[in-house]
From TrEMBL, chains A, B:
This is Metal-dependent carboxypeptidase. One of its GO terms (biological process) is proteolysis. The lineage of its organism: Bacteria, Pseudomonadati, Pseudomonadota, Alphaproteobacteria, Rhodobacterales. Zn(2+) binds at H254, H258, E284. Pfam families: Peptidase_M32. The keyword Hydrolase applies. It is an enzyme of class 3 (hydrolase). Binds 1 zinc ion per subunit. Broad specificity carboxypetidase that releases amino acids sequentially from the C-terminus, including neutral, aromatic, polar and basic residues. Keywords: Carboxypeptidase, Hydrolase, Metal-binding, Metalloprotease, Protease, Zinc.
Amino acid sequence: MSDYNELMGFVRETEALSQVAGRLGWDQETVMPGGAVEQRAEEHGAMASVLHARRIDPRIGGWLETAVAEDDVAAAQIRHIRRSFERAAKVPAQLASAIARETSRAHRIWAQARADEDVAAFLPALDKVLQLKREEAQAIAGRADPYDAMLDDYEPGATAAQLSAMFGAMRPRLVALRGAIRDKDPAPMLRGTFPEGEQMALTRDLALAFGYDLNNGRIDKALHPFSSGSGLDVRITTRTNVDDPFNCFYSTIHEVGHACYEQNIDRDYLLTPLGAGVSMGVHESQSRIYENQIGRSRAFTGWLFGQMKDRFGDFGIASADDFFACVNRVADGFIRTEADEVQYNLHVLLRFDLEQALVSGDLLVRDLEAAWNDRFASDFGFAVDKPSHGVLQDVHWSEGLFGYFPTYSLGNVYAGCLHTALRADVPDLDDDLARGDTSRATGWLSDKVQRHGGLYAPRDVIARASGGAPSEGPLLDYLEAKFGAIYGL
Amino acid sequence: MSDYNELMGFVRETEALSQVAGRLGWDQETVMPGGAVEQRAEEHGAMASVLHARRIDPRIGGWLETAVAEDDVAAAQIRHIRRSFERAAKVPAQLASAIARETSRAHRIWAQARADEDVAAFLPALDKVLQLKREEAQAIAGRADPYDAMLDDYEPGATAAQLSAMFGAMRPRLVALRGAIRDKDPAPMLRGTFPEGEQMALTRDLALAFGYDLNNGRIDKALHPFSSGSGLDVRITTRTNVDDPFNCFYSTIHEVGHACYEQNIDRDYLLTPLGAGVSMGVHESQSRIYENQIGRSRAFTGWLFGQMKDRFGDFGIASADDFFACVNRVADGFIRTEADEVQYNLHVLLRFDLEQALVSGDLLVRDLEAAWNDRFASDFGFAVDKPSHGVLQDVHWSEGLFGYFPTYSLGNVYAGCLHTALRADVPDLDDDLARGDTSRATGWLSDKVQRHGGLYAPRDVIARASGGAPSEGPLLDYLEAKFGAIYGL
């Protein structure tokens, strides 16, 4: 057996174990008995320790020295393996286990602090996590920028400088768009209650309409919607709220975007580094284009309006145009995950700037809340009323996920680029969407983006699909046109 | 940290991984998407390979040389670890992987052969598995009896000689009891259909009535009922058939017996070798005493009759006595898993004698079907009509599980001993059971057997609980009395 094949055999087994560990997470959020929490923590810990040991196994270094790539696919596999091995090898074992321990602790403290609206209770734990993650980033980056090393973990190849330029151009246009909408009459709202069983039935139809393959997946309810797994077993969750069926439907469509990416990767890459979405940004581009550019389009919402009338009767919306405005309603709010397309990126940009300043040391943890509240008031025009609506709202920093937030907005930028190219390639797409048929849209995404898995670098896969270097322009043009039409700007 | 503590830390992580691997099996039988089979096989393989490597990890040998047991519990832990390590270390890696490969292959061939009623198609695969398992047993047993080494895998300390004496004494009395019943009028049968939703609701009540803790477990449907997991997460499955609610209810009670054993083990033993049922025989003693001696007793079936009338209305049974006879109906049948209390052990004894002869070489695989059919005709008085009703009915041999069958009957023998002691300790137990209250019965079993987990050797835990060396006498006396009364013998 060649060194390359030996290496791939080892890596394939690691990927299989990683799928098992991921499914343990799915189980915990959907079907696990409540009393199993303590034991589950040990099971998670044992899997994490097995996976970590395999990822830094010195045999990988040996194989990498001698393995020969005979084609582009093999070269890409080796590139992924080398990157992951070298990153892992640079982090001392003691630091890795301190990070695991302190993030687990900080996560518990954060949850309690959020419940208690007590920022001060969280700050010492956050400070500890920040120090450890900075130390890790410095070990990886050497003399380069530690924040870039963090970012690289979620979005290989991206740099803070590049994203700052992109996001810097977005912010004023988004703030202006938001301000213009705020001066207009609010869009109509749904009235009535929407039985949960009917929501789940329609959510299943929506998942199928977007190409989700239930033969390689399943839909369950969970507290937070997520997609889990790669390859032949990619499961999603959603949630229901009798007052707010859109939360269920658009959570489902969002997760279906993530899940279809994983389901549609070339089967030759199954259980290899190429067999998973290439980055968080590209992943988010798929979930967001499914959810927003397709799922919240005038054409598709026209079809959805009919489906909802058939199932729920009258719910206070008179026309398909009103329904379109209702689905895309822009309203004041504190919470990122509940934000509309216009305001979502403003929430992300705030976090991106603050976490960069935390990592560089320009912002001290003790000044974080004030900085958050100042920036929020400046972009949104009103004040944060309590910490759970502000600096304590997101789980990410407690878990040490510095560098993760910007991938959300990068995903939206990528979705904008892909959407423009898709519309150019399929000019009559709205005829399909108006019938609830997404197959040409999702087929285009599958062919241009999803099937490649990790074969190309994140920016490259978007550039190849959209015909040029990614930029924020298409997203902003799309938002201004869409919301300009809805609000008569 | 002491060597003992280091050893236990390592073993604890292995036990946690083993729980994860087991839950992967649960997932596959209950919630896995159909298209995930291939990937799942790789995931199972990866977990098995991780677990195997840990079980033969040479560090265990080192720790065992120096670890000091400071109490009985530690001594028992070390005894289990040493036994498992020494067994695993005696089997060459190549042989272990050949067994994994060939049993997986033989299992597929068996399933097809059973569907095709084609014994000849299965025999070469069976022969290969038999040779490999014999080789493994010889590696473990050295100059001792290879069948005993197989048996020891499921029932530590048991020997074929001991079981042959026990089972030899059972066979004539069971054949005679069966013959006497056959001459009598058959017991009444259920009539009607029993909606599956109502069956599942009652099955849940039954599980709770027998002490199953849903905070550390859950009940799902699966093709075959099973119990899965140890400690804080012990799940069961059952099945429904609109014509046959007893199949659902008694499968549930049986699996609850297994599950309560795992749930009720002393929590100090969580994720250690003492934290699981000590042997297949003792496990089966719990499932069978729940199912039969308690669940099919005149007193408990009186309560169940009322529950079923409340839920299903009239189903053609006039009185509680008729219902008791119906639940305990003895009828001709080919299939072990569907057999009543009287005939079940005759099915097992047949397999025990045949598999011993296969392992010793006294019986050749090519003569197996004829030997099966002869023995069946002799004990049951009628002829096997097709291979799926005879030699191809069970999965065990295809999976290399030689030595497993006798633990079923040993479990019944143990249940007989425990039942006699339980009745002596709680003379008015029937008053409880007639109200559907099993708490004194299951509490006694929890205290006398279940909580000890792997602390005592299998025969010892039964002897301590029942006050003497286990023998077949109590089981046979119980069966003759119970069925004598039902059939007026």
